[in-house]
Design a protein that fits this description.
Radius of gyration: 23 Å
Largest sheet: 8 strands, mixed
CATH topology of the largest domain: Immunoglobulin-like
GO biological process, one term: synapse organization
Number of domains: 3
Order of helices and strands: EEEEEEEEEEEEEEEEEEEEE
Organism: Stichopus japonicus
Subcellular location: Membrane
GO molecular function: axon guidance receptor activity
Keywords: Disulfide bond, Glycoprotein, Immunoglobulin domain, Membrane, Repeat, Signal
């Protein structure tokens, strides 16, 4: 629909996903560079924001690489059909739900909806509204998290809404990496305590000196996940 986000999907069979990757998208033979109105996702989606009449004039194709056979392949051309806008509540296009990145990386969580008038988007994380900043921004409906930190991990929800209704989807983000910080020691019994940190809960051995439990806060450096 004109003015909405268009989503093309480069379909890779489930049995081949471990060794076939999407390498690029092109339109009428020209490689599409992510940025501006275009987003390209590792799992093979192409998003074109604010669809325009001229977008119909191009032919779209994705390219894949088979790492086992060391071969490349291009898909058949796809044409874009844009419907005349009619009043309708948003419908969010299916996309990947589970996402994992490392500390310092960037992730774009997808949320593209059709509907007229063009929907407005609102994101929440663990039940609270997401505050936008220089590091956390919106690309139309997609939420972009740059220079990720452990606290960015969690359960996200995107709501697309216009005058005729709303629709909501969930996206889960795991942030992995090395970190340092304080952990809270509790439930100490002889040489074992439970160590708690906002990003993890685990048990660890503690060294008893003169039958004394160590202080209830210690420093740690370990692989942690939120």
């Amino acid at each position: 629909m004109l003015g909405n986000t268009v989503v093309f999907k480069c379909e890779v069979p489930a049995f081949a996903k471990d060794y076939v990757t999407v390498t690029s998208w092109s339109r009428s033979g020209t490689i599409i560079v992510a940025g501006g109105r275009f987003s390209i996702f590792p799992w093979g989606e192409l998003h074109i924001r604010d669809a325009r009449v001229e977008d119909k004039e191009y032919q779209y194709s994705c390219s894949t690489r088979n790492t086992l056979l060391q071969t490349t392949k291009s898909s058949d051309f796809k044409k874009l059909t844009l419907a005349v806008p009619v009043n309708i509540k948003p419908e969010i296009i299916d996309s990947v739900v589970e996402h994992t990145i490392s500390i310092g990386e960037e992730i774009e969580l997808p949320c593209a909806a059709s509907g007229h008038p063009s929907p407005e988007y609102q994101w929440t994380k663990d039940g609270s509204s997401v505050t936008l900043s220089e590091r956390i921004t919106l690309r139309r409906g997609n939420l972009v998290v740059s220079n990720a930190v452990l606290d960015d991990g969690g359960s996200y929800q995107c709501t697309a809404e216009n005058n005729f209704g709303s629709n909501t989807v969930s996206r889960n983000l795991v942030v992995r990496g090395k970190g340092r910080g304080n952990i809270q020691m509790s439930n100490c019994r002889r040489t074992r305590c439970q160590a708690k940190h906002p990003s993890l809960v685990y048990e660890m051995e503690t060294k008893v000196i003169n039958n004394l439990i160590p202080p209830n806060r210690i420093q740690f450096g370990t692989d942690i996940t939120n």
